[in-house]
Amino acid sequence: MRPRWGLNPGYFAGDDCGLYFKALKQIKELGFDGILGLGSLSPTKPKSTLTFSDIKRGLRDVGLRFFQFHADWMNMASPEESERRRAIDFYRRWIGYALELEAEQLVIHLGGPFHLNTPEERQRAIKLAAESLRELVEEVKGTGLRIALENEGIGPPDSEPRFEGAIPERELDPERMLGCSPREIVSVIERAKAWEYVGVCLDTGHAVSTRQNLEEAILGGGRYIIGTHLHDTTDYDLHLPPGEGLIDWEMVVNTFRKVGYSGPYIFELGFEDTSWEEKVRRMKRSKELLEKLLSPEEA
Q1: In this predicted model, what pLDDT tens digit does every residue of 13-68 receive, in sequence order?
Q2: What is the pTM (predicted TM-score) of this model?
Q3: Pick from 255, 260, 265: which is nearest to 288 by CA?
């Protein structure tokens, strides 16, 4: 069976909604099957000029699927009940967005807190995340939409805060954060008994940026992995095209095979101020690298 490939339109379009349809056409011409979206291009963003109808029409016109819709961040593991309730209501709205877009998966994070000081605090956060997840699952039952919980990452020390009031990246300690480890995410899914509707989105760059062994991270997600965010890095979360950093992609592909992964291979790449032609060239090279690594098993 041929693998399915996905790419975020923002790799080509950046924040420019006017380039969205051109980006979709280019993604299709490069042999991709679907997208991860939409970041700053999302209709949920104040400066976006796109609508959900625009997005669905654009995908339909070029023949692409909406593999994953990535939600914004809120803390559904907060020890403050009012904050946790706000997060649950927030993600209910995002489930509605994903259903309107006919997305296959909604990608979210477990939440914080980002400074877990004791084993007891961590267990409480896991318990609260599982309770929140049980409520969200009720919204996706019978729809075909699945929730994909993504492992946390850490950007460069000078990164912009990921959300208002966020702890600066340079102050984050992955050992004290919730949800960096795919194995920990699995423990939340199992505690919530939500495996029919929820899985793991394995982000390669996030695993490296939080000082994990990438092979062990993939094995930790195991059969629960239903989605991927593939990008390369040297240390922090850099969102480079595969093959432009230090990740061993042959190991990555082989480990995905080992756990029986059969979902889409989705590139999540950063926008860089280079020419359109250069982005196409880099994307072709990265995709060909992974296709070659996958081909012996797929043949």
Answers
A1: 999 999 999 999 999 999 999 999 988 899 999 889 999 999 999 999 999 999 99
A2: 0.95
A3: 265
